Amino acid sequence: MKTELVIDLEAEKQEILKRYRALLRASKSTLQKGDKKEIRKAFDMALESHKDMRRKSGEPYIYHPIAVAQIAAEEIGLGTTSIVCALLHDVVEDTTITLEDIEREFGKKTAKIIDGLTKISGVFDTNSSLQAENFRKMLLTLADDVRVILIKLADRLHNMRTMDFMPRHKQLKIASETIYLYAPLAHRLGLYAIKSELEDLSMKYLEPDTYKFIAKKLNEKKAERALFIKKFVEPIDEIVHEQGLVADVYGRPKSIHSIWNKMKKKNIPFEEVYDLFAIRIILDSPPENEKADCWKAYSIVTDLYRPNPDRLRDWVSSPKGNGYESLHTTVMGPRGQWVEVQIRTQRMNEIAEKGFAAHWKYKESSNDNGLDQWIQKVREMLNNPEANALDFLDDFKMNLFSDEIFIFTPKGALIQLPLGATALDFAFEIHTDVGATCIGAKVNHKLVPISYKLQNGDQVEIITSSKQTPKEDWLNVVVTAKAKSKIKSSLKEEKRKIAEEGKEILERKLKSLKITYNTDNLNKISYFFKLPSTQELFVNVALGKIELKDIKEYLSSEKEIEHRSPERPENLSVDGIKSKMKGSESDILLIGEDMQRIDYTLAACCNPIPGDDVFGFITVSDGIKIHRTNCPNAAQLMANYGYRVVKAKWNKQKELTFLTGLKIVGIDDVGLINNITKVISGDFKVNMRSITVDTNEGIFEGSIMIFVNDTEHLENLIKNLLKVRGVTGVTRFDA
């Protein structure tokens, strides 16, 4: 038995060396004198410190850092420092090696990046989210060195590729965090290939059935698609070469996640999604001819196939904020179906695939880099003293995915803002003081309120007044993180001033009632008035919401109340909630690792019903709430509060019914509603809670809220409703 193990270890040793050599080959293009030695030193340190560790799959742990370094080198195009950091990214967290050791061996820069990649340890306030804090720490390093994020993305990509051996709840948590934060980050850094793969892999774990369904459908039509692409591309290829352009023309399948998004957005079945692939034309052009050649190719394509005039996207003249440059058009193919064509040069393509890293390579030629501006914005957000990491995360997240619009100042300067930005966002973008005193704006010389949503190409002039100050409801008007953080800090400053006044007033009042002014008493008073902090208490006193008579009331009740400090959600664990609650007998949901029956409530945001893939979320005040894993809020909850998520699964039981909604679309016909209600109430004996119907020029749209037993019951009902004459579509919707 023993010899077998030795052979095994020998084989593993060979495999490790093989992988290490592959890594060296991948990084060959960037290696300079002495680099190989550095990489070897890092590899030896990682090998030694992880030697007794294994991954969940049973493989040696060192496979992971090597793979991460390989992704960094090959797929992102990073150099030696990054490869060294990728090899060592887990040693400080998981082994006895310290940051000082790394700094001594590899220098300050490497140590700083690895510190950015190392999770925060230590005790946290129970309300804060460890994930959010770690993310903020990583971004603090990003402001100095973008490589920290790129290595983190490589690390996340490898973890997502090798997640099969993880327990289901861990898969859900990691996949949610990926779709919520890391895929948008890859998008923002221009790493489209990695972004698409992260989205697809997240979907594989979060919505396995849909993922398998689309993958199977794509596979079935593969040959047919290849033939179509071949026929479509041939004439383009021919004319492009005739015109003396050097180009590579090919078809590229769309990612499963983007196809699913299209199905959801347009509410259509797979069969009706036309752009399952895009045609790419990659030109080999010298920098001075790039623009002209792209338009030349565009004119060739649109001579052959008729373009859709609304679908021209020109990111060659004004690149996206993440540096993406390309010309997109949608044309009518020979079989009467729309085909998306993307035209770009090799330089543009490399930037689209490798994002940031490719940018540095071409930095001399690219004017005014959008990515530098973005990092500048991240720095501004991090300078904001906003204490709450979760708020920061939400603001940051919001600015990751939004498309840009271009706005002109009165003098014609161009400013980029996210889609949906308002006149007030524009004011803060120009200067904090302009934002804080903004009372309105002139858009294209017309007067508009501060909440006016800007359109691409608007010219905006801001009107200010020295009497204006930021208001609480401004937070609902703005969408950029910069504006939000500036408004929040002004409001905080304002609140601090009010609280100072309140503090003095309260001190005088307590003195007159002979109550000692100390922290203990302030906490008791805050608790009595159900206020979250003493600052809120001071503010309420200053605003006159708490008066002397109220404090007297507190005094009389204090005689009965035992000393208690403000309550904190100490028991944020399943066991804590289990001890408070007894599972009712008719319970049909099993919760936690040991699958016990515990009381729960169903989340109103997604109305889960038995049969749905669900998870439990421990709330601060309402016990356990059950959400569907594809609930609109699920990704955010799992990404920010993974430690509060518990496993949950349904147990067969028929007596209970659950509320869910159905949207019915069809062609209006005499007796259509009657036939629909007959199927629901008559054939299925299902109770309806409400029904709203709208018919518009012969098209019927109805929403019905009904009570069903489980998903199987619901699916059968949908099948039968689709058989009703005139009904063309039935879909379930979240509340």
Structure, described:
The chain is an alpha+beta fold and 735 residues long. It is 49% helix and 16% strand. A six-stranded mixed sheet has the order 12-11-16-14-15-13. The longest helix has 32 residues, at 481-512. Residues 1-7, 122-127, 363-368, 561-571 and 576-587 have low confidence and may be disordered.
Summarize the helices and strands and which ones pair or pack.
Blueprint: H1 2-26, H2 35-49, H3 63-74, H4 80-87, H5 91-94, H6 99-106, H7 108-117, H8 130-142, H9 147-161, H10 168-188, H11 192-206, H12 208-220, H13 222-242, E1 247-253, H14 256-266, E2 277-283, H15 290-304, E3 313-314, E4 327-332, E5 338-345, H16 346-354, H17 356-361, H18 370-383, H19 389-401, E6 404-408, E7 414-418, H20 423-430, H21 432-436, E8 438-443, E9 446-448, E10 460-464, H22 481-512, H23 519-528, H24 534-542, H25 548-558, H26 574-580, E11 589-591, E12 596-597, E13 600-602, E14 614-618, E15 624-628, H27 634-640, E16 645-650, E17 658-667, H28 672-683, E18 688-696, E19 699-708, H29 711-722, E20 727-733
Helix pairs in contact: 1-3, 2-4, 3-4, 3-9, 4-7, 6-7, 7-8, 7-9, 8-18, 8-19, 9-10, 9-11, 10-11, 10-27, 11-12, 12-14, 13-15, 22-24
